[in-house]
Amino acid sequence: MLNLIQNNFRAKLDICGFWDFKVDNDAIGEDEKWYDNFNSDFTIAVPGSWNEQLEAEGLMNFMGDAWYKKEFFVSSEYSNKNIFIKIDSADYHSKIWINGNFIGENLGGFLPIEFDISKCININMVNSIIVKVNNKLNSDTIPQGIESDDYVNENRIREETYPPARFDFFPYGGINRPVYIYSTPKEFIKDVKVSTSIIDSNTASLKIDTKISADKLYSVKYELIGEGTTKPEVAIANSESANCDMSIDNCRLWDLDDPYLYKLKIQLLDDLVVVDEYILNVGIREVKIEGNNLLLNGKKIFLKGFGKHEDFPVLGKGLSLPLIVKDFSLLKWINANSFRTSHYPYAEEWLDYADKEGILVIDEIPAVSLDFRKTTDQTLMNHKNFIKKLIDRDYNHPSVIMWAPGNEPNIVGDKNYYDGSGEKYWNEIYNYTKSLDDSRPITIPNCQRAGVDDPVFKNSDVISLNRYYGWYENPGNLETAIVRMETEMDLIAEKYNKPIIITEFGADTVAGQHSVSDQMFTEEYQSKLLELYCKLIESKDYTIGEHVWNFADFKTPQHFRRVVNNLKGVFTRTRDPKQAAFTLKKIWANTNSK
Ligand code: GCB
Questions:
Q1: Coil vs helix vs strand at 538
Q2: Which of 9, 186, 383, 434 lies 20 to 30 A from 51 at CA?
Q3: DSSP line for 413-479
Q4: Cα(144)–Cα(378) distance, rounded to whole angstroms?
């Protein structure tokens, strides 16, 4: 999927701003034809989650249907073009109507939704869009949902959260990322996929697969703009695709200390006339696992950083560009070189920034805490669909170095997982992900409770461990915690003989709470726990990284275990440093190696 650009061939209209909003508590909107029009109850900002914006109106814990409406003017610039709508994400399910016409439906949040709306747009006139968004999840969806009844039936009443959720982050609802109307020419470049490889220290090659939509034979011209020597190539396209290989001498690689981006200019030509043009940022780099090492451009690299969340007061999961700038500047300040998009794909703007700043990303699917007593064929299908959509969107980002098609499956632990079904499931997910991209390693973070026989280990190129010795286990006892951590790491390393990254370790910490002895929730305890873990992890030659849980405090569903937020952040929810931030900054001073 191509990011939107504007040029002489393509226009883009941002329709973010204030939208009319109505809550549909009884799910009667469709029967009452609210898609034609409705009287709004409130005005709401897009992008942004409804929960905190309209907290005073009772929406903090709302799970259900809500309706959005907006009018927008489409100018004559759009005549004789294909016209599309793109919603970068509506969480979790959405249905769209334009001028009363049903356009389409999308199941699953966190990734863009796109439909051709050429036939129902009125040019030179005001048009209206109505979107119904629903944030309820169930056993078939990714992520899976849970209902209060399920807790009762499963005898887990004390674990029930409000709103009910199967995961430890707040189920924010709404149109959380921008909405655009955009145009392309009638014959156009639909998609471009660029694979890069390094031939020797000087030379690299690009393999470019282009999808087009055309009614006759066109040609496609490729020009790489940037350092080194390369010549433009022209490929003859059929009505659907064109392929091209390019080589570059004296090329400048994309690397952490020099995240150099080329511009690839792609033109669709009718004879010699350019009918469409797209420009894509390309970073030339190679990621490899060799033995127990992670190599970036042939050099060993050790990942230092965090599991993060898209989460901020008032915004909820709404996109905020200033927050992206702030978070990257803090990542740089603390000497981190990477993060994981736990537990879902982040807005593509995060990856654009990572490409520019030279920060590495483990890109994750929202298959978080899958419950294998509840997974159905539909769950697997939705899961695969997510992987396909993620790779379609993110394949071209040099910052993305690993796919995580899940996190912590089966934390409830039962035989429907270890009887071979878990292995079959993850095998299928692993092979499917590889079939879409065999250039990036795959990892599925394992939950402490799922144990050392978790089938995700077999189905990962890199083993990822989420471990909470010193917190959920051996609380307050750091000495025992570290001994148990080392024993388990060594056991897993020996059993699977694969590189290991510790993708989660941490301690909830109340900023301003202090103590001279090891006391949970104090800044000193978090700082000491992280320091001991880093020392241990860095002492092992089979480890390739350490990601602290979490970059910042984040909001969770209500439960007696959490004081409003998960407090394992090294920064507070509003990004003030806790003591541990200064500790990590020192430990990570030698940024890219152990
Ligand atoms: C985990 C989960 C993460 C939680 C974290 C915690 O293992 O992957 O989503 O937030 O533990 O703090 O309990």
A1: helix
A2: 383
A3: --HHHHTTHHHHHHHHHHHHHHHH-SSS-B--PEEGGG-TT-TTTTT-SSEEEE--BTTTBSTT-HH
A4: 11
Give residues with Cβ within 8 angstroms of 64, minimum separation 6.
23, 24, 25, 27, 134, 135, 136
Phi first, then psi, for residue 230 (nearest 5°) are -155, 155
Q: Is 91 in the pocket of ligand 1 (CB under 6 A)?
A: no
Q: Closest by alpha carbon to 8, among 268, 222, 213, 234?
A: 268
Residue 523 in contact with ligand 1 by CB distance below 6 A? no
- Closest of 475, 585, 487 to residue 527, by C-alpha: 585
Ligand 1 in reach of 448 Cβ (< 6 A): no
- 154 catalytic residue (yes or no): no
Mean pLDDT of 470-491: 98
Q: Is-catalytic flag, 364? A: no
**pLDDT per residue as tens digits for the range 514-557:** 999 999 999 999 999 999 999 999 999 999 999 999 999 999 99
Helices and strands: H and E segment counts in the chain = 10, 32
pLDDT per position as a tens digit, 57-109: 999 999 999 999 999 999 999 999 999 999 999 999 999 999 999 999 999 99
Q: What burial class does residue 249 get, using C-beta atoms within 10 Å of its C-beta: 0-12 exposed, 13-18 middle, 19+ buried?
A: exposed
